[in-house]
Amino acid sequence: MGVSEPTARDLGELGLIAAVTSRLPTADSVVLGPGDDAAVLSFPDGRVVATKDLLVEGVHFRRDWSSGYDVGRKAAAANLADVAAMGGTATALLIGLAAPPDLALDWVLQLADGLRDEAAVVGAVIVGGDTVRAEQVVVSVTALGVLPGEPVTRAGARPGDLVVLAGRLGWSAAGLRLLQRGVTDGPFVEAHRRPAPPYGMGPVLAAAGASAMCDVSDGLATDLDRIARASGVRIELDSAALHDDAVDLHDVLTGGEDHALVATITTPPAACRVIGRVVTGEGVVVDGAAPPDGWQHFS
Amino acid sequence: MGVSEPTARDLGELGLIAAVTSRLPTADSVVLGPGDDAAVLSFPDGRVVATKDLLVEGVHFRRDWSSGYDVGRKAAAANLADVAAMGGTATALLIGLAAPPDLALDWVLQLADGLRDEAAVVGAVIVGGDTVRAEQVVVSVTALGVLPGEPVTRAGARPGDLVVLAGRLGWSAAGLRLLQRGVTDGPFVEAHRRPAPPYGMGPVLAAAGASAMCDVSDGLATDLDRIARASGVRIELDSAALHDDAVDLHDVLTGGEDHALVATITTPPAACRVIGRVVTGEGVVVDGAAPPDGWQHFS
Description:
homodimer, alpha+beta, CATH 3.30.1330.10, Phosphoribosyl-aminoimidazole Synthetase, Chain A, domain 2, 2 domains, six-stranded mixed sheet, four-stranded mixed sheet, 12 strands
């Protein structure tokens, strides 16, 4: 009846923060939670895994294709997966939201709920953040986490290691293409809106002796190329092992944002799929040939 | 001779990250620095102070008024001051940069240098980050720090405490007004471009028994009102004690972004100025009257 939807402007910065904060749980590791100049967190073993990712409207998501809740899940997932890829488990998130003043309050609260719920998958909580005015929605997430053992970097792959995969590839890319064609639901579209990284496999692979690991955020070929370069090795992939009945090989090799975990290891845990091997040399090849290019920003 | 300036697009995401990373120092507290999925940091006492702020082009800075270096100094300062305001010292920064692809590479490198140099003021280093394409420049900074004692929140002010100030107030606001009038240099303009928070006074005030503390990011009256609300007290300020020959009282009371530290305490350290007292009641008054409003986002 002509009543307009409340916006970020209606609450103001402090009201918005209060509205979001009231929806958040806390945890034993949180010495001091949101609402002060900074949060204070407990990391009993004295080491902290820290990572940060930005999601930008029109680049990483569209508000007509993803709800605020979806964007929250996806923004948290990208960061939680980075912590998992070091062999760690995230415990805390800090959130930055740049948003137009006319952004619907409901969208912001959904975003917070999505961030909260994805964080809860690994037992992490939101401990602080900042909200500012901007022309475009930008969601900035910092994840902090604990590390049971030594960090698994990209630089430790050795010839003789197997290459193993946990999680799915190409689903988000397939979902994006369906959205571009006007399809708005189904498993691929859902995978694009809400990636489901195999977080728990990060510490499992680390404990099983993974020599290198990363999450697949920019495409398997691109991300494995980073491991190959950092480790000074060549990675050979088998297309048969990468076959997915539902997704074509190009999407499997180049699709980002599913946040699968890929690792090099001599004795793979049962829950992983072996997709290739590490040899001497350089670069990444699929059945002996160069793979297609993946996703690059600023291009 | 018609050669255009290199841009973020020319280097691509990875080239940009490599160019920035090559300019950064490391520190003993950094177990694993930039370039992997996440950084790993050492916090020997097991507690981490964590905070996050965003700076948005057109809201917090203008590229025609501030260099990339200035924006880097300012973005770091806002976060380092938040850590100081808890009584801590920042040790690590994570940086997120959302930027148009045609942003000059030199601007990005200047930004990184400014962040690095402001961090170095307290001995902190940049340990990671993310860079993405956007329409508007958004700089997101997360600061992590150590805490020598208990965190000083906004909630501990008690009637009988004095209110003390370290640092300057109103200079950034005065500088902004000069820039709006076309004045492009001088001490106030420099103060707007590069705040100089008294970081070291955060731990000093904490050790001296500060009962509440915050940095002045949104204006003294606004920020002290947060302490008054959180502590359930009234704060009385003396305009004579706030007098600054160079800046008018309105700017002193409402100007943000200088990131002075304000604390409540019974026995102030010598380096602070006493500007008022804590009494029973609520709100903030100046010479017994309501102060003007400060800065609010989304308004």
